[in-house]
Amino acid sequence: MAVSLSTNTVKLYSPVAGQYLGEFKGHSETVNQISFSGPSNPHILCSCSSDGTIRAWDARTFQQVSSINAGPSQEVFSFCMGGTSGNLVAAGCKSQVLFWDWRNMKQVACLVDSHVDDVTQVHFVPNERGKLISASVDGLICTFDTTGDINDDDHLESVINMGTSIAKVGIFGETFQKLWCLTHIETLGIWNWKDGSNEGNFLDARTLASESWNLDHVDYFIDCHYSREAEKLWVIGGTNAGTMGYFPVNYKGVATIGAAEAILEGGHTSVIRSVLPMSTIPSGPTNSPSQGIFGWTGGEDGRLCCWLSDDSSESNQSWISSTLTMKAERTHKKNRHHPY
């Protein structure tokens, strides 16, 4: 489990025991995104930063193994690996989307006309690796075809306008044709990126979520979580005091945000910045030590909190619906949890 810190360092921990394993040092500015490169290279962790670099680290030796530099005065806000060959690296920078070939670290394209402000997100579509989706502070979500010689004129396929600065997007759905979008003013949009249709626009998302529980007002959204098994989407909201809730999003028919199906309380004392779900990540045998872990959260209080999804706790400070945990059979029992 990799954790990026405000000191521009990335630390590694065991996701089962929480044991500290080591750290990566090299970035000189804010680390904006971290990601393990994939099953083919499970020991390689990549990170991008406002220092203008994308770096690859070996989790076995804690050494940097390669680096890409976007150029002077650049910042890299997001990156993704994919393309039809699987060797394309896309990066969201200052109003530009840059591409490199990971095999030789050479830049192969630069899209400069599609966005006019910082590109906060880039994602290759999981089942169509040649398609790239970008999102920006300019409020636009663009779809590109990255096959051949990439350029703005021939490879920009569609544009969706959210109308406000975009913080985070995610691709979901049975065939990955849908897109959720969280903005910097805490609104939520659901789109079909293939035909550009809007399937849900939650301009009052925070109010709807706040009315769905009897706790403090939801101050911000952290992320969204989608379960392919349940075909269900949750938006994850938090309070300034460190409480977090998973709120189901209904975008079919009347657009609503339902009552919290998970409340994580008592672990953090400040704003929660990141969520790592565990119970929906298959971990092998059912007796695996991580089976009872619902997930991890990291916050501005400097804490990493682990949340349990079994009955080992007598604490009732937080609870999680069974629909959010991976189990062999469907059950409606509400399990209690506590952080440690």
UniProtKB/TrEMBL annotation:
The keyword Repeat applies. Keywords: Repeat, WD repeat. WD repeats lie at residues 24-67. The keyword tRNA-binding does not apply. Transmembrane segments: none annotated. It comes from the Eukaryota. InterPro entries: WD40/YVTN_repeat-like_dom_sf (IPR015943), WD40_repeat_CS (IPR019775), WD40_repeat_dom_sf (IPR036322), WD40_rpt (IPR001680), WDR89 (IPR039328). This is WD repeat-containing protein GTS1 isoform B.
